[in-house]
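quick q for whoever's on today - can somebody do inverse folding on this one?? i tried earlier but teh output was garbage lol. tokens:
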């Protein structure tokens, strides 16, 4: 009877444990299902967020591309307008001034030695006309140097450096051009000229440099323009943190032109250590 009682108690205990285990299993399965449902819902939310983020990124990329296209079109329009104005100055103003100078010189020849006062007045006009002609030519070349289209970028660089040194005799430019004219893509010629023009003008205004090193070179993969000056340099963080007109448009203009033409723009400077400007463009193999 004692053994029967023990067996009955063992069976009851086993049955109770089995029931508890079954209930625990059911509870665990229910929790697993709930957690699985929660994870599925979270996955759906993450999927929706990723899709929304991807959509926004695509729209942002499209907007950036559209803005880049508009900026490129604007720069191209500006260059066309510059070229047109320069041509008008050359054809209209230049021709009128040349004709005026010719007529005054003809009048002087016909006048001879008679009317010395009239002759002196006419002779005083000629330098004024000549100076105006030179100023018109300077404005024309600043807007769009005709030799860039006629002779190419290398001749234009040499001309611009000569002009620059004649205006700023205290600054000497050392050039190292290791590239042939036909190796410079036509689309980059005006960009290189504008970057060079802006950089050297900035050096004259701000750097107090005595020497400028100018490098234009290429390898199988890139075209590189480097301009290094021996001036006083500046704090880059301070310069780029300025707002409004105090910041200036030179650095932004150069960077924009280079990047819109597919290149990369880098500037290094430190107070008392000069400035290095580097523009690099990839070349199609």
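ok took a stab at it. sequence:
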């Amino acid at each position: 009877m004692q053994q029967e009682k023990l067996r009955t108690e063992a069976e009851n205990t086993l049955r109770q444990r089995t029931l508890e285990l079954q209930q625990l299993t059911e509870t665990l399965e229910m929790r697993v299902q709930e957690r699985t449902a929660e994870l599925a819902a979270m996955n759906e939310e993450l999927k929706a967020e990723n899709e929304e983020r991807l959509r926004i990124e695509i729209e942002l990329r499209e907007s950036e591309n559209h803005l880049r296209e508009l900026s490129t079109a604007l720069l191209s329009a500006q260059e066309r307008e510059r070229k047109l104005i320069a041509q008008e100055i050359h054809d209209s103003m230049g021709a009128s001034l040349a004709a005026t100078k010719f007529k005054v010189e003809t009048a002087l020849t016909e006048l001879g030695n008679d009317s010395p006062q009239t002759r002196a007045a006419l002779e005083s006009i000629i330098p004024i006309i000549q100076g105006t002609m030179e100023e018109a030519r300077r404005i024309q070349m600043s807007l769009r140097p005709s030799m860039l289209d006629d002779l190419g970028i290398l001749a234009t660089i040499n001309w611009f450096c000569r002009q620059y040194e004649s205006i700023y005799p205290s600054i000497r430019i050392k050039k190292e051009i290791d590239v042939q004219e036909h190796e410079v893509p036509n689309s980059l010629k005006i960009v290189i000229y504008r970057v060079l023009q802006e950089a050297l003008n900035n050096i004259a205004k701000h750097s107090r440099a005595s020497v400028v090193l100018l490098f234009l070179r290429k390898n199988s993969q890139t075209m590189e323009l480097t301009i290094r000056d021996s001036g006083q340099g500046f704090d880059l963080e301070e310069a780029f943190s300025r707002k409004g007109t105090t910041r200036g448009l030179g650095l932004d203009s150069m960077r924009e032109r280079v990047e819109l033409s597919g290149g990369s723009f880098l500037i290094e400077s430190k107070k008392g250590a000069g400035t290095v400007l580097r523009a690099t463009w990839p070349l199609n193999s």
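fwiw The chain has a mean pLDDT of 85. also The chain has two domains: 1-144, 151-285. so keep that in mind when u check it
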